[in-house]
C-alpha cells in the first residue's frame, strides 16, 4: 500500500552490493591462459571437397549427339551421364579476372551534347527544310515521268 498522500512507487528495490549481474560461465572465465589454450580453429577445406557445378553445355551437346530431343530424355541423359565442370574452368574468373583497360567506363556512352550555337541559328530547321525541298523535287520528277 502506498503511504498516505504519496504516489505509489513503480520500481523494484535493487539487490545489495554483493550481488553480481549476469551469468558465470565456468568454461570461459579462466582468463587469458584458458582463452589462448582453447581456440576453436576452422580447418581449411580442400579444393576436392567442394562439389563442382554441372557442365550443362557439354551434357547438352552429348544429349543432342545421342538423338535426344525432349525435356524428359534430356533429364534421363543428365542422370545417366553427370558431367561436372573442371576445376580450372570453375576457378578461371577467380584466379585471373579478365584484363580490362584502365580507362574503361561501364554502361552506354552518353549522347554528345547539342551545340547551342546551332540551336540559336535554327540550323536544324534549315536542314529539315532542305530535306523537304529535295523530297518534293524527287516527287515532281517521278510525277513527270509517269
UniProtKB/TrEMBL annotation:
It comes from the Eukaryota. Coiled coil: none annotated. It holds the Pfam family CFAP77. PANTHER family: CILIA- AND FLAGELLA-ASSOCIATED PROTEIN 77. This is CFA77 protein. It comes from Tricholaema leucomelas (pied barbet). The lineage of its organism: Eukaryota, Metazoa, Chordata, Craniata, Vertebrata. The gene is Cfap77.
Amino acid at each position: 500500500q502506498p503511504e498516505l498522500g504519496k504516489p505509489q512507487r513503480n520500481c523494484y528495490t535493487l539487490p545489495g552490493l554483493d550481488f553480481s549481474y549476469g551469468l558465470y560461465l565456468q568454461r570461459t572465465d579462466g582468463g587469458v591462459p584458458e582463452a589462448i589454450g582453447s581456440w576453436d580453429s576452422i580447418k581449411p577445406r580442400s579444393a576436392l571437397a567442394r562439389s563442382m557445378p554441372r557442365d550443362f553445355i557439354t551434357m547438352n551437346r552429348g544429349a543432342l549427339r545421342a538423338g535426344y530431343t525432349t525435356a524428359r530424355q534430356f533429364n534421363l541423359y543428365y542422370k545417366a551421364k553427370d558431367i561436372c565442370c573442371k576445376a580450372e574452368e570453375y576457378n578461371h574468373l577467380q584466379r585471373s579476372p579478365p584484363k580490362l583497360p584502365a580507362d574503361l567506363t561501364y554502361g552506354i556512352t552518353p549522347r554528345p551534347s547539342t551545340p547551342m550555337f546551332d540551336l540559336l541559328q535554327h540550323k536544324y530547321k534549315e536542314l529539315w527544310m532542305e530535306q523537304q525541298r529535295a523530297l518534293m523535287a524527287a516527287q515532281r520528277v517521278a510525277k513527270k515521268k509517269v
